[in-house]
Amino acid sequence: MTNPDAAISVRDLRKSYGKFTALDGVSFDIHPGETFALLGPNGAGKSTAIEILEGYRDRTSGEARVLGVDPGAGGLDWKARLGIVLQSTGESGNATVREQLAHFAGFYPNPRDVDEVIAAVGLEEKQKTLIRKLSGGQRRRVDVALGIIGNPALLFLDEPTTGFDPESRRQFWQLIRGLKTDGTTILLTTHYLDEAATLGDRAGIIAGGRLIDIGEIDEIGGTEARVPVVRWVADGVAREQRTTTPATLVAELVAANGGAEVPGLEVVRPSLEDIYLELVARHETAFPEHVEEPPSGKNASTGSATGVSTGPTREVSTGSATEKEIAR
Ligand SMILES: Nc1ncnc2c1ncn2[C@@H]1O[C@H](COP(=O)(O)OP(=O)(O)OP(=O)(O)O)[C@@H](O)[C@H]1O
Known about the structure:
This protein has 328 residues and is an alpha/beta fold. It has two domains: 8-219, Rossmann fold (3-Layer(aba) Sandwich), CATH 3.40.50; 228-269 and 298-325, no CATH class. 29% of the residues lie in helices and 23% in strands. The protein has ten helices and 13 strands. A hairpin with a 2-residue loop joins strand 10 and strand 11. It is globular, with a radius of gyration of 23 Å. The chain starts with 7 loop residues before the first strand and ends with a strand. Bound molecules: adenosine-5'-triphosphate. The site of adenosine-5'-triphosphate (ATP) has 16 residues, from strand 2 and helix 1. Residues 8-233 form the ABC transporter domain. It is a peripheral membrane protein. This is ABC-2 type transport system ATP-binding protein. It is found in: Cell membrane.
């Protein structure tokens, strides 16, 4: 049964496109006021789930409630309480930034102030510019502005900062923090794991249409996944060891080195990205059939199967017993 107190509640959500199962029984709740990051590789089923929750796509089976309403049957009042930033930039037309926002503000019963929104997305200097003359990143800011102009209770952000330069991303994060402070519930999908870690209260990871983990950002992957890694160089060979007592190991290494500095020494705590990559890789090993793309589909998978780029895979062991030499 769905949770009546949740902003979003789904139970055993399934979606098939012909014989291909894009969502294979997903259940989760998103609490009012929280920022929830839905993560997963290309083709995992995130957009499918989000579009079902936005009321744009039918589900094959399962239960869903969004702000207490079945998204398959949500009326205009319900839609007016949602803010939606789709994955792709919409048609820009021949309107200026300000005209477009003022136009959309007119559709909502309780819109935000147009000037405030323009300032919030950092487009003051471009407010009189035709949207088609903006850069890709600036247009994406217009998408975000259009998503929040209606003062939504629930904001869907599907890869909102793709194409943003680093400074714009940080400005955008500030904007999202402000919305969060105002009590807006946010469902965010992103391939930037640092973005998820910075903005999210909780995260869910989808792979192959299944939810493989869910929890507070710093609990994803469990305690084991967060065991620090100590790296150093001995006899010209890079070594690393996972240990719950890194200080002890560092002291041992220093002692073994006659009290001198240990070359290449670093203690690294796995980031959300490290943990995510490990979880997804583990899932893909366990369910290789989920990795394969369907014969036809809207999203051809590009790049790495895990959806984010990373350096060479490192093999490490947990505890103090084993250490592994790695090629650098
Ligand atoms: N209309 C459709 N018809 C057939 N297959 C589809 C359709 N829409 C999506 N799919 C397939 O369903 C799977 C899930 O797609 P979805 O867009 O939900 O993934 P995603 O997690 O959002 O991926 P990305 O990170 O690349 O945006 C993919 O394999 C995709 O090809």
